[in-house]
Amino acid sequence: MSRRDFVIGAGQLGLATALGCNPSRARPGGSLSNVRPRPSHTLPSTELSWLRLKDHFVATVGEHAGTGRPMGPLVVLADATFAPRSRFPLHPHREMEILSIVLDGDLSHHGNQAHDAVVRPRGAQLISARDGMVHAEGNDTERATRMLQLWFSPNVHGGEAAYYQRQLPSVSAGRHLVAGDDGMPLRCDARVWWLDLSSRSETRLEVRPGRAGYLLALSGSLRASGASLETGDGAELLEGDVVLETEATASALWIDIPVPGGGASDAG
After folding, report:
1. In whole angstroms, what is the distance from residue 194 CA to residue 131 CA?
2. pLDDT tens readout for residues 71-100
3. Topology of 3-19+29-262 in CATH?
4. Domain boundaries, the chain
5. pTM of the full structure
6. Span 158-186, pLDDT tens digits
7. What one-character-per-residue DSSP string does 18-83 give?
């Protein structure tokens, strides 16, 4: 599959198409807990010569493009690794909040704003596409880059595209807000947190009524109210408390979102 094919899938995938797909509702484990694990090996994957990725929600490329379902306003969560010296071609986005988070390596950004930003490990960039923009992200270095890209459907529309960037502090136990405040303002009711976990303490997450969460293990092994997650595994978090524990250091991403009707998510 060529880079041009990827752009056709990712740049031109309409939100209506994403919302209209109908995957299987089967869930791993069948647990009655409010933690529903989604192991990495069960997720759609794409392998190109220059890119590897796992799609946790709507896929935008390859044989799985258009499959999967959003979870509230969270449309896309792609865990992607770029080969050295690789980049998407320029492609458009409109009316989407696009959050990129770098886990390892450097992520370069190029676009019609021509600011040539570079996002480094534990860094994030938010693009509020609004009335439209053209961009391309990639890896301009000699080593691989692993990054996450999240797409959120906005509830406020129109205006000139806006760009924001944030660097999280160096590794330390605790939770760090990535997006969802005045510094990284998502145009939807969502917040994204980076969690640094330590064996010396437990972390408690509260999922309030009418909301849901998604947890992604970024590095290391952890337990979420007894459910085991390895690097790359995800888990839906339904209403209630979730206790995170690890026997060593680990990190995770926690996404807090509203769920229409206050019930379980529609994620496939």
Report:
1. 29
2. 999 999 999 999 999 988 888 999 999 999
3. Jelly Rolls (2.60.120)
4. 3-19+29-262
5. 0.86
6. 999 999 999 999 877 799 999 999 999 99
7. HHH-------SS--SSSEEEE-GGGS-EEE-SSEEEEESSS--SGGGTT-S--BTTEEEEEEEEEP
